[in-house]
Amino acid sequence: MFNMYDIIIVGAGPAGMTAALYALRANKNVLVLEAKVYGGQIINTPVIDNYPAAPGISGFDFANNLYKQITDLGCTIKFETVIGIEEDLSVVTNKETYKGKSIIIATGVENRKLNVENEEKLIGKGVSYCATCDGHFYKGKVVAVNGGGNTALEDALYLSNLCNDVYLIHRRDEFRGEEKYVDELKLKDNVHFILNSTIKSINGTDKLESITVIDKGNKEETINIDGLFIAIGQTPNNEIFGNLIELENGYIKSNDGVHTNKDKIYVAGDTRVKDLRQLTTAVSDGSIAATVAIKEMED
Ligand code: NAP
After folding, report:
1. CA 20 to 30 Å from 149, out of 46, 47, 183, 208?
2. Do 148 and 7 share a structural domain?
3. Which of 49, 133, 173, 263 is catalytic?
4. Is 165 among the catalytic positions?
């Protein structure tokens, strides 16, 4: 016997939780399924300064506020891993199968891995993908940040206020992230730029001890560090839907930003093909997906 819901939302990031908010306010019976923790990528952002009318809110507070908002409205959230969806709108998790009148996929993206030896092994033992979550473990220590986008720049700034030294390693000599962060970092005595370089190896047996970086002229340098924060972007994680849903470079295709190729299965947030992956566009997607799903349920 299936557990039946009006709308099943896969993913409890800003897009998924906003979809839930709109559906609950329309009095729909909503199930949100989340494999890890609610909040998605935004919990990694120490300070959000580009969300209208909420300057300075932390990603953690943003996620908590939204979670409280939907659970206060009676949202059912289950922390289970979705392993597939079927033609008949059933959603299979590692624990159960649920049936929806519609499904919204809001699975977001996950941190890209460097794919060098010892990376997986030393996660939680010096290797991290979240400076806001783990930075405090490295107070007074030496860390490195890898990446050149806004996440890496923000991480380096955040860590420069906690750690003795921060090495910022980037594969080019120009940053993808905003100039204002680069300027702020250049003013910090404890931030050291290692440009045109990549991480060749992560070294350590039981815990991280050092990294070896290699520059474009093949010159290698080994740096002793206590923590490595990898911030080299994100990738979607949609292979589980590939049997049913059309993907493009791993992202879910949608002609209008809401509908997938399957009737009653919608997409919202960073996981779809789109130009701008921001908090503002994620919550916008969530509200539109829920509204369209409800309308088409009632047609
Ligand atoms: P991103 O903008 O995609 O940047 C990823 C960085 O990692 C790039 O500098 C890239 O180098 C580098 N990189 C990628 N693969 C690599 C590899 N295999 N080895 C070494 N370096 C690699 O990712 P993000 O910084 O996480 O940001 C994601 C989105 O969120 C962006 O739109 C960003 O603006 C937004 N964001 C906004 C804020 C804010 O507004 N406050 C904060 C955080 C994130 P190249 O530049 O050479 O490609």
Report:
1. 208
2. no
3. 133
4. no
Tens digit of each residue's pLDDT (9 = 90 or more) over 70-122: 999 999 999 999 999 999 999 999 999 999 999 999 999 999 999 999 999 99
Residue 55, phi then psi, degrees to nearest 5: -65, 135
**Does one domain contain both 220 and 253?**
no
Same domain, 169 and 225: yes
Is residue 121, in this structure, part of any structural domain at all? no
Q: Which residues line ligand 1 (CB under 6 A)?
A: 45, 50, 112, 114, 147-152, 154, 171-172, 176, 198, 231-234, 277
Domain presence at residue 118: no
For the question of residue 130 being annotated catalytic, the response is yes
Mutate to test the pocket of ligand 1, among 146, 176, 200 (most ligand atoms within 8 A of CB): 176
Residue 294: which domain range? Answer: 3-111+234-298
Q: Judge contact between 189 and 160, C-beta under 8 A.
A: no
133 given a catalytic annotation: yes
Strand order of the β-sheet with 127-128 is: 127-128, 227-230, 142-146, 165-169, 191-194
